[in-house]
Amino acid sequence: MPRNEALLRLHKTLLGRRFELRKRLGMELDDLSHGKGSQPSGGDAADAAFDSSGEEIASQLAELEAKELAQVERALRRLKQGTYGKCETCSCKIPVARLNALPYSTLCIKCQREMETEGGWVGGRGDSDWTRVADQHNPMEDRVVNLSDLEIDLSK
After folding, report:
1. What is the pLDDT of residue 15?
2. DSSP the chain
3. Is a pLDDT exceeding 60 seen at residue 80?
4. Rg (CA), the chain
5. Residues 6+ away with beta carbon under 8 Å from 53
6. Interatomic CA distance for residues 5 and 9, integer angstroms
7. Directed axis angle between helix 2-34 and helix 45-81, to 10°?
8. Contact indicator for 25, 48 with CB cutoff of 8 Å
9. CB 111 within 8 A of CB 77
10. What contacts 50, CB < 8 A, 6 or more positions away?
11. Torsion of CA 2, 7, 12, 15, to 10 degrees
12. Which is more confident, 42 or 99?
């Protein structure tokens, strides 16, 4: 029963985080589209560069928050489906301590480490054999490509 109570607390945490992210993203996107960046500052080139870098940072922050919001939404969907708190790779229960630290985690610590050390896809699926990917039967054979082969008739 304590795990279920912890999952209910995490559900409330995820709902709160989703609300906060939606609110912040709405304000940041509004500022970027018609607010601070569209008004001329009347300063010199250094002021313009500073304003531009501030807008770039705000844009990058909004992008990171949008990614986090997507992860939170995914965690909430998993809660509804009854799969929240289970590792997507090995189906083991993700420890509540990990979920408290990262509520939208989808992997247990072991699978997360394996993914990070293998530098790619989960569960060994990243060990792709790229030599099999080719347009021809013999992937080692160089193919001559003419520019005319790549041209597309856009008049149609």
Report:
1. 94
2. -HHHHHHHHHHHHHHHHHHHHHHHHHHHHHHHHHSGGGS-----HHHHHHHHHHHHHHHHHHHHHHHHHHHHHHHHHHHHHT-TTB-TTT-PBPPHHHHHHSTT--S-HHHHHHHHHHTSSGGGTT---GGG--SSS-TTS-----HHHH---TT-
3. yes
4. 24
5. none
6. 6
7. 150
8. no
9. no
10. none
11. 180
12. 99
Q: How many CB atoms lie within 10 A of CB 117?
A: 8
- Give the span between the Cα atoms of 68 and 22, in whole angstroms: 10
Give the burial string for 86-111 (b: 16+ CB within 10 Å, else e): bbebeeeebebebbeeebbbbbbeeb
Q: 32 with 62: CB under 8 angstroms?
A: yes
- CA dist 74 and 105 (Å) reads 10
Residue pLDDT, tens place only, 10-41: 999 999 999 999 998 887 666 656 555 444 55
